[in-house]
Amino acid sequence: MKSSLLIVATALMFGVAACSNSRNQQPAPAASSSGGVSNAVSGPFTDQELQAFTALNPIDTHTHVFRSDPAFNAMLQRLNLRVLDIVLVDDNNPELKDLSVESKAAWQFIHGSGGHAILCTTFDPYKVREPAFTQTSIRGIDREFSQGAIAVKIWKNIGMEIKDAAGNYILPDDPAFEPIYKDISSHGRTLIAHVADPNSMFDPPNPDAPDYSYIQQNPFWYQYGKPHPASKEKILQARDHLLELNPGLRVVGAHLGSMEGDFHQLAQHLDRYPNFAVDLAARMPYLMMQPRADMIAFILKYQDRLIYATDNGFSAKNSLQPSLNEWEESYAHDWRYFATNDTLEYKGRPVQGLALPEPVLRKLYHDNAAHWFPGIVPTGH
Ligand SMILES: [Zn+2]
């Protein structure tokens, strides 16, 4: 059990490097072995669990797959899983520097996936200061739409890395991006906004934070101590400004909209912006740390605005079989939390599953994805 959790943590590091924080930041082996929960359920799906999971036609709206493999496709088939495959440009990661190379690998996977995957495209924000940036970006996005892409992602390098000529951080509501947002909206497509990062990336080091090991592995993104970073508050305000300026644009805030530390704040945002929903990718620990009754009440209240997602990744640097195991175990783990009364373990503490009603599970795992990402479910399904 413990070893499987550690395997998940290790193997999902590619997802970390690709995009975000690891979904299951686990304690170091010593801590894990001392704090075990003896009756915690872990491991792959049982037959019965798999039957309930596959019956929902589950969708994961946040993955990064840049590799094709028949065994991987067979895993998707077995889980009856449909994934949104997200590309992004990260100048700090050799694997993600060149959008055309990345897109090609993603499309190759999608075309061979037997209908189990679809693309979320992006544009290269590092080119924002080039005169033709906006038009070039729109042309690229429209080309991907015409090929079947159904969404566009912006990433945290907007707000936390890329600067204007005066040395100020470019924010998500920068006027250079506005025509791009209008273009996405005019095509009836969806914007995924992963902007800012968990609070712990802006705060002094805290070994108890779920994202602590991500900071160790990715010090580049640790904002605390950097000279004059844009504050998290300022970045999220710019995201909110984007929502206000584009009421007709559906925006899905990745990773709980980076409001993982305050579910009250998240609730206020969902109340205020009808064009805003959030995915749960890589933030399950934050849900699991909440009192069970509070989390049930929150999910029931916002059952139309929460979209199941993982941030799982699969690329050339991953070993095949461990990746397959990790993918399946991550879905099984999350499923037990949402759908069952089982006892799970997080950081040596027991966490009881929420046992949500089936209609709510159906929304989390399928209906909300279909609503917020038109085109993610092929017609006729
Ligand atoms: Zn991601």
Task: Describe the secondary-structure layout.
Layout: H1 2-11, H2 13-18, H3 29-34, H4 47-54, E1 59-65, H5 70-78, E2 82-86, H6 99-111, E3 117-122, H7 133-147, E4 151-154, H8 157-160, H9 178-186, E5 190-193, H10 212-217, H11 232-245, E6 250-253, H12 254-257, H13 263-272, E7 276-279, H14 284-288, H15 292-301, E8 306-307, E9 312-314, H16 320-339, E10 343-346, E11 349-352, H17 358-372
Parallel strand pairs: 1-2, 1-9, 2-3, 3-4, 4-5, 5-6, 6-7, 7-8
Antiparallel strand pairs: 10-11
Helix pairs in contact: 1-16, 7-9
Bound molecules: zinc ion.
Zinc ion binds at residues 19-20, 62, 64, 86, 311.
Explain how this protein is built.
The protein has one domain (2-372): Metal-dependent hydrolases (TIM Barrel, Alpha-Beta Barrel). With 381 residues, it is α/β, with parallel strands linked by helices. The chain is globular and about 60 Å long. Helix 7 (133-147) packs parallel to helix 9. Residues 1-18 and 21-34 have low confidence and may be disordered. Helices cover 43% and strands 12% of the residues. The structure holds zinc ion. Zinc ion binds at residues 19-20, 62, 64, 86, 311. Residues 19-20, 62, 64, 86, 311 line the site of zinc ion (ZN).
